[in-house]
Amino acid sequence: MMRLPANKIVTCSSMSFLRAVFMVACICMFIEPHYVISTMLRFNTKGEFKILQVADMHYANGKSTACLDVLPNQVEGCSDLNTTAFIERMIKAEKPDLIVFTGDNIMGIDVDDSAKSLDLAFAPAVASSIPWAAVLGNHDQEGTLSREEVMKHTVSMKNTLSLLNPPHADKIDGFGNYNLEVAGVHGSPLQNRSVLNLYLLDSGDYSTVPSVLGYGWIKTSQQSWFLHISRRLKKAYMSHPEAQKESAPGLVFFHIPLPEFASFDSSNFTGVKQEGISSPTVNSGFFTTMVEAGDVKAVFVGHDHKNDFCGELMDIHLCYGGGFGYHAYGKAGWARRARVVKVSLEKTVKGEWGPVMSIKTWKRLDDAHLSTIDDQILWSKDTAGKLLQTA
């Protein structure tokens, strides 16, 4: 993101009725022939599934692209290759089951060739053979490819689960709206059920409404799609065989923070807030939509590089990834960082792997020790939002 000031929220009461009508009308766009789970993602035999979030790489041209906001003794030789090395360290240390890039993956205005820069930016993920997914930020399209072309190129890459847009939805705003399903442990009663649902959305770049300044927002058509998928997954999870009592947990990933991220201060979040919340000036109501859906436990964004906090609002954690890339603005002496999310299953009374028991998160710093900070429980069947006790 660029350093725009945090904005006040515009109340759009005149949009409320039209939004409600359009939400209903959009449901017809998402009729699917039948429900089939994707088994490309699955909990491991330890009953765990780990996600690495990479926020704001701002990759440009590789070795020739200098770092921003680093200490004087770090300037010489510092480039995009430091970002590459950080991803490689994180993959080796955490061994994630999925890597999610939450936008501003390349810094479009600084690239010579957007396709080449995308290839360089995602190269460590591709080389690792770990499944990965990406959404767009507000800078990815500012180079030699349009927003649609950036996403199309991303979708064409090896090992990615990214989609241009959902199947059976030909009228939806943005590019890179899709969901991923994580099946239970192989051989368990839930091996053919999605026990964890991931939603990825395009939060836009900049407002296209002349009277509204600032960043883009998640549109009504996207929210309609999200609600439809959430309800479909809930129905499938709570149906026989192996019917569950409630919907599987959901995690949501996009780039630009919602206005609700401004609801917190140092007394009610874990992490740091070192700059304003650069959300859209229009509140399109997506937070309310997630509350209505009932399955979302946490949201993960980027955009504001010097913020890395998680705060809980109405039983949903709103989390920043923290600035990752070395060609992105940051704070000299404040280490680049990445967020890790680990989801664990519970054992049933029969000793078999069952539904999700807990969702935890922590961050890793790109320092000499790849330090771990801010271990936190985001959700569990017994508690939520409590800081883990360290020995």
TrEMBL record:
Belongs to the metallophosphoesterase superfamily. Purple acid phosphatase family. The keyword Glycoprotein applies. Keywords: Glycoprotein, Iron, Metal-binding, Secreted, Signal, Zinc. GO terms for cellular component: cytoplasm; extracellular region. GO terms for molecular function: hydrolase activity, acting on ester bonds; metal ion binding. Residues 49-306 form the Calcineurin-like phosphoesterase domain. CDD domains: MPP_Dcr2 (cd07383). Its cofactor is Zn(2+). Gene3D superfamilies: 3.60.21.10. It is found in: Secreted. It comes from Carnegiea gigantea. The lineage of its organism: Eukaryota, Viridiplantae, Streptophyta, Embryophyta, Tracheophyta. Homodimer. This is Calcineurin-like phosphoesterase domain-containing protein. Pfam families: Metallophos (PF00149). Its main location: secreted. Signal peptide: none annotated.
